[in-house]
Amino acid sequence: MLKAGVLGAGHLGKIHLRLLNQSDKYELVGFYDPIKENAQKVEEEFGYKAFDSVAALIDAVDVVDIVTPTLSHYECAKETIEKGKHIFIEKPITKTIEEAESILELSKKHNVKGQVGHVERFNPAFTAVKDSIQTPMFIETHRLAEFNPRGTDVPVVLDLMIHDIDVILSVVKSKVKSVHASGVSVISETPDIANARIEFENGCVANLTSSRISLKNMRKSRFFQKDAYIAVDFFEKATEVVKMKDAPENPGDFDIVLQNAEGIKKQIYFENPTVEANNAILDELETFADAINNNTTPVVTLEQGTEALRVAHMIINDF
User: GFO/IDH/MocA-like oxidoreductase domain: which residues (predicted)?
Assistant: First the structure.
């Protein structure tokens, strides 16, 4: 079992603590939180050991789970890596691209593994259809959330949209060609609602909308490719897959057949992939343990986390 420690015991940090504690792939050693009252409360309520410093926690573990505010990701990761310990780091990987690139170089220098917490890659609705998303040419995403003061220290692009940026980059096998975006600050000092259009070199276009001032929650993505439409509801954990194939010469009474202007007939059919219930955060933590134990590549690498951040900043810079 890998010895693990958590930096940050806020809302998400407590979830990570609970899941690491129940996992049979980790031994939870303890946590560090700079707010002493919070650390004491968590220690008393859950029985997790509170460390007095970041350094003391790092020295006691094999893996450090960084669940601190984004602004402190870099310093926490740097200190951890320089002591030769593996890092799991919440999204976004860091605040700046320079910080992310520095972490990348340090991880290579000290031969440690890192994974970024882009948890939607482990959403069961996405994993059920990701192999069907082959060559998407148009993608539309909506990620809307009710207002929550947590996360407003960064623009909505780094808070919410980056989830969809990472998912899109994982399925579009092409480089980003250009970005056009707009964002509006309504409640926060940084944009609370944003729209971005990402164009890729292979012709694929992605249109992303994110808001943290919505009256309802929505996390939907739609992928359009040759002969297929694939929809993923990340919030409801549901999928919709509509495909087309050449129509049979003698279609059945219930077959849906369309004919285009050139006279080509296509049959529409529906697939219902099984969406298996899971705990996405537990899955991402445990696959990282597997990557360390088996010396394999993590599902969401530091490089991928850096690229998602790079595109996010392209969007922010275009406001």
Answer: 156-215
pLDDT < 70: residue spans in the chain: 150-153
Beta bridge partners of 30: 5
State how far the Cα of 89 lies from the Cα of 284, in Å rounded to an integer.
11
Q: Residues 6 or more apart from 263 whose CB is under 8 A from it?
A: none
Q: Where are the alpha helices (DSSP H) in the chain?
A: 11-22, 36-46, 54-59, 73-82, 97-109, 124-129, 156, 162-171, 280-294, 302-317
Instruction: Give how far the C-alpha of residue 68 lies from the chain's centroid of Cα atoms, to the nearest Å.
Output: 16
Q: What is the pTM of this model?
A: 0.93
Residues 6 or more apart whose Cβ sits within 8 Å of residue 87: 63, 64, 65, 66, 77, 80, 81, 107, 112, 113, 114, 115
pLDDT tens, residue by residue, 243-259: 988 888 788 777 788 88
Q: What is the pLDDT of residues 155-174, one digit of tens each?
A: 899 999 999 999 999 999 99
Please state which CATH number belongs to domain 2-117+280-299.
3.40.50.720
- State whether the Cα torsion 8-11-16-21 is positive or negative: positive
Q: At 76, phi and psi to the nearest 5?
A: -65, -45
Instruction: Give the span between the Cα atoms of 244 and 226, in whole angstroms.
Output: 9
CATH 3.30.565.10 fits 121-278+311-317, yes or no: no
For the chain, the structural domain boundaries read 2-117+280-299, 121-278+311-317
